[in-house]
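Worked example (supplementary).
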Amino acid sequence: MLNKEQIAQRIAHELRNGMYVNLGIGIPTLVANYVPEGMTIVLQSENGLLGMGPFPFDGEEDPDLINAGKQTITTIPGSVFFDSAMSFGMIRAGKVDLTVLGAMEVADNGDIANWKIPGKMVKGMGGAMDLVASAKNIIVAMQHCSRDGKSKLLSSCSLPITGLACVKKVVSDLGVFDIDHRGFVLLERAPGISVETIVNATEGRLHVPDQVPEMTF
Amino acid sequence: MNKVVQNAQEAIFDIQDGMTLMLGGFGLCGIPENLIEALVNKGLKNLTCISNNAGVDDFGIGLMLQGKQVKKMISSYVGENAEFERQLLSGELEVELIPQGTLATRCMAAGYGMPAVFTPAGVGTEVAHGKETRVFNGKTYLMEHAFDSDFALVKAWKGDTQGNLIFRATARNFNPLMAMAGKITIVEVEELLPAGELDPDQIHTPGIYVHRIFQGLNYEKRIEQRTVKPRQD
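After joint prediction of all chains, the assembly is encoded as:
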């Protein structure tokens, strides 16, 4: 099984030079650590920044400069600030090339649930509903199963929906999946994970091609 | 034309119980610290607050929640606040969670004089309940109304005596949008300058949107998630 860093590392393979990318909180944030050498991508932070740099050195934190996870960050040459309406304007207008976010559940038609557990968690959707409603290309980073072993790749989401039929690709701790009319399409297995394990861990429709390579890093 | 008032207390003299307020900021970044303190001291009740977040337990809007001053919050994300969660689960506090881009755009619409906007955010979710939808070019959109708020409380970096504003870094966030959206907009600034001191090309918010402005004091600017990398020797 992949750990969180490895999930992020695998998602980084999807980056292309010159992309504008929005990374969600959690595993998606780690993707920034694996941008291939020589490639330039521009990170969008929906609280109003394009060109997000690394965390500051100790003592150089600026309380006016944070990311969407409220962490202190830095700018890089070419960075630009803007207000929240313009930030979501560029998201809505499809200017952001790739969105990576976490999920509690994904359905085999691309529905995603990641903002609310009724009676338990009421934190809110933040920018997730705006992102999934408009992004051209959405990759979800997630654990394949819950702690008690229940599949989170489902035929339909049981939790309140964040967006409909929007997820294009899932990278879980077990494998990489496209989502199309066939449901989840198994593209790659995590090292040491069998197709059978993935079949058993996937409640939604799963298409298994004849050849499913093990992923390489 | 001089829009300067002495302090936060004077600036909020006509805010009353039960009113609807917009408060700028993202997390604790760019929040109107002086104005929140004045609202707490004045003990106003039954307020409806439109703000992206609800502060933390002991800072920002969290201070107003401690004093049970808030009847309803309209926000996109309200984690990091235990008292908030307690009041919500006990039914003392009403909460309307809306997508962050929708929140921003409903402010913008008010400031641009547009009664409503269409957004795809929330289509097919519980956010869409009871809302009118329209299909444009085969895609479904929700109609979202411009906010109607009595006051907007805003924090800017620099401002002048005519109310022109400049924001700094990501402390800009919702502030310029809310500044445009309030029936009455009150602004606190880190640096208040005479008109003419700000470069007209660099001003983010024209003073026409601003009714009162004052020099803020004693900014704490608390950091919510201090995240640093070690220095390499």
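Two points are worth noting when inspecting this output. The first helix of chain A runs from residue 4 to 12. The first strand of chain A starts at residue 20 and ends at 23.
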